[in-house]
């Protein structure tokens, strides 16, 4: 198998991963072209609307709207293709969709887009909010019941003085139950609102992070087909490398999403084993050095550290993330240094030091928050999840992490694990 076959095989494998992400996403997804023709839908969208992907392929998106809204939506869709923009989940609109069976139901929709050589494609992220709307109706009804009970209490106090004690006690119990139910519903709505905001942030970030790499893959894949002679092998290899590098970045992005999910669900439990730390660091450094660009290099030093008793895979993931960040934010020809040593307390210390962009004091206070990115990193690819995941991994193993940084002077990250 030559290099081209291997690259194509790798591309097919990664394509299967992306198809799995698309089909098993926990939100409905529909992709349409600039003419409003449905190109593809995922499995949850099939469940939401009752259609199969084959039934909707090539149909206008208006088939999924109530009949009275279709002409209006067609005009809005045509305007969107001329002035495309990312529209967050909800956007203050009450939207209705149409099921295959004919019944209508409320939805929230987020829009994004990407361009290819074939033209503009629009991505719609759809969430069925029937349950939330039903809860709101229940809340309104209970509020009305509460007001009605209050009025009854006033009437009883005025006309039935002899039974004030008994009736008041009965009403207090009723009010307590209603208020408790109201509080529970409000808390449920608040939780759903927070989840919706988190999903909206994820959708907005994922749309931004996936759009450019996917366009790169589609463009390179299209260009490869145009180079058919052996003399054009160099051109094919160039585009195959672009695809391979882009797929690697997307794979890292997906791994971060999967790690966050497992951490939130409590599925990650450290598994201690004894291993040779310098060997692991050299292995990670070697792999990262092969990906380094612009003349950037990684140097490793160790002093007095041999075998340790921690979770090897978590340590590997921590090193991969920190070295990736250090290379990403380093200047061309920059040097990233990795140190492993025992401090005066015999604690294990791992330091990763770069001489790159640095981090402002104001941003350092938020570095471990989900989706947070420094203001000087807006033009550099990233999700804002890496350091959050690293901090969680380190905490699970009983360690600590410290950051020493200054703008334009670089960053030093120190990880400490207490003596066994």
Radius of gyration: 28 Å
Q: How many structurally independent domains?
A: 2
CATH class of the largest domain: Alpha Beta
Poorly predicted runs: none
Label this structure with key terms:
alpha+beta; Beta-Lactamase; Heat Shock Protein 90; 2 domains
How is this structure best summarized?
The chain is of the alpha+beta class and 420 residues long.
Explain how this protein is built.
The protein is an alpha+beta fold and 420 residues long. The chain has 2 domains: 3-130 and 194-264, PAS domain (Beta-Lactamase), CATH 3.30.450; 273-417, Heat Shock Protein 90. It is built from 11 helices and 12 strands. The protein has helices at residues 3-23, 43-49, 53-56, 70-82, 130-159, 164-224, 233-264, 277-291, 312-328, 361-364, 386-396, and strands spanning 28-33, 38-41, 95-98, 104-116, 119-128, 273-276, 297-303, 307-310, 335-342, 348-354, 400-406, 410-417. The strands form 3 sheets. The protein has a 5-stranded antiparallel beta sheet with strand order 2-1-5-4-3. Helix 6 (164-224) runs antiparallel to helix 7 (233-264). The radius of gyration is 28 Å and the shape is flat. The two termini are 48 Å apart.
């Amino acid at each position: 198998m030559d290099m081209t076959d291997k690259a194509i095989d790798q591309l097919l494998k990664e394509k299967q991963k992306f198809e799995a992400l698309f089909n098993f996403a926990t939100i409905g997804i529909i992709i349409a072209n600039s003419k409003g023709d449905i190109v593809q839908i995922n499995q949850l969208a099939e469940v939401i609307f009752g259609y199969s992907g084959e039934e909707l392929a090539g149909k206008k998106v208006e088939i999924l709207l109530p009949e009275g809204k279709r002409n209006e939506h067609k005009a809005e869709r045509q305007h969107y293709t001329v002035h495309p923009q990312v529209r967050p989940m909800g956007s203050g609109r009450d939207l209705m969709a149409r099921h295959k069976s004919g019944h209508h139901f409320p939805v929230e929709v987020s829009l994004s887009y990407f361009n290819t050589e074939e033209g503009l494609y629009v991505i719609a992220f759809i969430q069925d909010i029937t349950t939330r709307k039903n809860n709101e109706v229940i809340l309104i009804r209970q509020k009305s019941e509460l007001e009605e009970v209050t009025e009854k209490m006033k009437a009883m106090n005025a006309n039935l003085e002899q039974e004030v004690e008994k009736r008041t006690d009965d009403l207090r119990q009723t009010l307590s139950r209603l208020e408790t139910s109201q509080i529970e519903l409000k808390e449920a709505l608040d939780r759903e609102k927070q989840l919706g905001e988190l999903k909206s942030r994820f959708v907005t970030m994922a749309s931004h992070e996936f759009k450019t790499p996917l366009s790169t893959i589609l463009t390179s894949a299209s260009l490869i087909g145009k180079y058919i002679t052996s003399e054009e092998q160099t051109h094919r290899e160039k585009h195959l490398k672009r695809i391979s590098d882009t797929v690697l970045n997307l794979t890292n992005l997906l791994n971060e999403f999967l790690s966050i999910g497992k951490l939130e669900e409590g599925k990650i439990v450290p598994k201690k084993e004894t291993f040779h730390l310098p060997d692991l660091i050299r292995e990670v450094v070697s792999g990262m050095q092969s990906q380094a660009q612009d003349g950037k290099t990684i140097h490793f030093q160790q002093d007095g550290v041999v075998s340790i008793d921690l979770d090897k895979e978590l340590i590997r993931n921590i090193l991969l993330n920190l070295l990736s960040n250090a290379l990403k934010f380093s200047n061309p020809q920059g040097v990233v240094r990795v140190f492993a040593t025992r401090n005066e307390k015999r604690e294990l210390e791992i330091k990763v030091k770069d001489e790159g962009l640095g981090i402002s004091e104001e941003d350092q206070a938020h570095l471990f928050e989900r989706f947070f990115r420094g203001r000087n990193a807006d033009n550099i690819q990233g999700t804002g999840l890496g350091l959050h995941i690293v901090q969680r991994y380190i905490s699970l193993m009983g360690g600590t992490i410290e950051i020493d940084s200054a703008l334009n002077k670089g960053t030093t990250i120190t990880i400490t694990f207490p003596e066994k």
